[in-house]
Each structure stands twice: as C-alpha cells, then as structure tokens.
Amino acid sequence: QETDGDKVLTYSHSNFDNDSTIYVNAKTFPGPAATHSVSSFQQEGVGVDVWYSSTIDAQPGINGNEALHTAAAYTSSYSGDLIVQVTLDNQVTDNTNWADIATLTFTGSETEPAPVNFNGVFSHLRFKATSNPADKITEILVRN
After folding, report:
1. Residue among 33, 29, 28, 11 nearest 20 (CA)
2. pLDDT mean across residues, the chain
C-alpha cells in the first residue's frame, strides 16, 4: 500500500495473494553522489607560475579500498597543465604533504570538458595549475 492509500502489487505468492507491504526509501535507490565545484585559485607567490585551488574533502571514510574519484575540468583557452594533488594528512595546513596523482595537459583549443579518473583513499585533494587559470579554468567538478 502506498502512502496515499493506493494498493500496488509488488510481490505475490503462488495464489496471487498480497502478503506484505514493501517500503522503498531514498537509501534503497540513492541518487547520484554529491558534486563538488572548484572555480577559484590562489597564486603560490609573487612571480611564481603556480596556482592552487581550494581543497576538497576526499571522503576517505565512505570510499573504501576501491575509491574512484572523477573530475571534469571546464576550460576556455587555457594552455598549461592541471595537476590533481592528493594528501593523506587529516588536516590541511601550510606543511601538508601533497602528491601528484594525475595530470591534464591543455593546448588552449579544447572545446569540451576534460575528464580524469583516479583511484585511492585520500583525505583531501586539490588542483595545481601551471599557468594563470583566471577566466580560463571556469570550473572543475569533482565526485568522490
């Protein structure tokens, strides 16, 4: 029986008699994973051609040993590398150790988002740009 009172046959035994009610909630058929958006970068220092994005929680507690991460970079005339960096540190500070896990290379002529997939259980991730991303990397979408 549905919440509005309508009866819907979902299971029957050999005599076609309905024996029970099945309740289906959002946890039974979950929707898509949450998407995180990155759109701002900070330059490492004056005169240094390296920019870092804000960090994203890589959700190590829910990802298990086969954690798949997916990112899609939306660019407009960006020429340079976009490097995915990860850490196992629990908190992000100025002393956090970052490791490069994947690199996307752009020529500036791309017309579609560039995807990257990588596996691993990490605490946080961020993106490193090798040339000024202002107005050229419009957005990076990430799913953990």
Report:
1. 11
2. 86
